Amino acid sequence: MKTGFLLTVAYDGTNYSGWQRQKNAYTVQQAMEETLSKVFNQPIVVTGASRTDAGVHALGQRVCFSAENISVPLNKIPLVLNNCLPEDIAVFNAEIVPLDFNPRYRAREKTYQYRIDNDTFPNPFLRKTTWYYPFILDVDAMKTAAAYFMGEHDFAAFRSTGTDYNSTVRELFECSVTQEKKTITITVRGNAFLYNMARIIAGTLVYVGRLKIKPADITCIIASKDRTRAGITAPPHGLTLVEIKY
Amino acid sequence: MKTGFLLTVAYDGTNYSGWQRQKNAYTVQQAMEETLSKVFNQPIVVTGASRTDAGVHALGQRVCFSAENISVPLNKIPLVLNNCLPEDIAVFNAEIVPLDFNPRYRAREKTYQYRIDNDTFPNPFLRKTTWYYPFILDVDAMKTAAAYFMGEHDFAAFRSTGTDYNSTVRELFECSVTQEKKTITITVRGNAFLYNMARIIAGTLVYVGRLKIKPADITCIIASKDRTRAGITAPPHGLTLVEIKY
């Protein structure tokens, strides 16, 4: 009998070419499929809720698969998988879902965090999970600007080309900027995200911090639907997929 | 004219065989000597305040060297060095010291932190800087036990063999245990440390947390001067040299 499973997975994306399987590069999906197929002794294909880019990290990625005749008790599955997975991938939870459960389309809320190391010199311990950006940033202006992103908007100005969408309207429930010592964290929480949307919002907020864009201009940039008016796409290694809710 | 310099250096020790130069292994000292010799265009030998073991990290290592005719302004030295050092080593400060300044013997206070990831499953982001230890720990007992280490004691029971000392008496100004979510941090601050002393104190406090040693027994173990009565030497990658004061 086939059973559907939904895993909660954390990974340090540094050594992977992103989530999605590729022909000539090693990805998190491939690492997980190889481990699961070996552990459960059957060919297993997994579906991720978010196709994180190369270098992007995850604390709460959700990963679906179905398998036949699994004898391992549900609560032991994380332990069994963690014993075999590479040390930069860890399963934190396993639950049973219907066989047709799609972790991507069923998600109703995703949270990403983008972290910036704003210290004068680069902290070696943060180099793989933050964007080292030693220039002066007006964090209060960034906070003010962040609020303009909240709500339902057409985010066409905040996506990279490469993916077609029926609609570029998305809703952000939260967009906030916090600072602890020299680390600045941008949190975006929404119903869904366009390709590179979280990183372009982060790059735009950094431009606000550099006084290249005024906080109140965010509204005009959103309305323009013009990608060239937003800031740069912040580098991938500062981004972490924190949580997905169903 | 020769000038003496004292650097404050942070490093992720994961990819190094410790601080001290070795014949057949790459160390932080070698990486720094190679970079400094190249940048200042003269052979440079450095002296570290603490000979951290393989895998041990540093936020505030102190490193001394002398060099002739340095034209770079003092406040630009960190920037110039960081541009050439490997990305897992960073210089945070440079100051001028007398030519005979010995960073090891002149230190009057060193602070180390030992971190434990006590979560059920290993957090991939903490795997290189914490000891993943998923067993139940009585943190209150660890806190009580830590206090017994404070003050001046003969720490002969808390050192590994391999180094001769005139005296094994050391003074700890602080020994404390804190917890934030599932991460437990042991802080030890003292006038000097014996070989592996910080890691053996950490391993002993973990034994207290596992109820293998009672907090009040710490006094007897210290008095015994018997290494076999203390706990294990906790693995190196959980240890960070945080600060050195002169």
Major sheet attributes of chain A:
10 strands, mixed
Helix-strand topology string of chain A = EHEEHEEEHEEEHHE
| Strand fraction of chain A | 25-35%
**Rounded mean pLDDT score of chain A:** 96
* The CATH class of the largest domain in chain A: Alpha Beta
Helix content of chain A: 10-25%
Task: Please identify the structural class of chain A as seen in this structure.
Answer: alpha+beta
The count of domains of chain A is 2
Largest interface between protein chains, with number of residues from each side: A-B, 22 and 22 residues
Can you count the helices of chain A? Answer: 5
Oligomer: homodimer
Q: Based on DSSP secondary structure assignment, what is the total number of beta strands of chain A? A: 10
Low-confidence stretches of chain A: none
Q: What integer value in Å does the Rg of chain A equal?
A: 19 Å
CATH architecture of the largest domain in chain A: 2-Layer Sandwich
Please name the fourth-level CATH homologous superfamily of the largest domain in chain A. Answer: Pseudouridine synthase I, catalytic domain, C-terminal subdomain
The gross shape of chain A turns out to be globular
Q: Between the first and last Cα atoms of chain A, what is the distance in angstroms?
A: 25 Å
Q: What is the fold named in CATH at topology level of the largest domain in chain A?
A: Alpha-Beta Plaits
